[in-house]
Design brief:
This protein is mainly α. Helices cover about 95% and strands about 0% of the residues. About 0% of the residues are buried.
Length: about 35
């Protein structure tokens, strides 16, 4: 059960990461501009 539940968490995190990847990329670009 522990492995199965952890697997479900990975799937949920993966789906959320896919949605936040574009947001994270824009945030990184903003940080680059701030550093420059």
């Amino acid at each position: 059960y522990a492995e199965a539940s952890s697997g479900d968490e990975d799937v949920d995190n993966g789906s959320s990461k896919e949605g936040s990847e574009s947001n994270g990329a824009s945030a990184i670009e903003e940080k680059k501009h701030d550093q420059q």
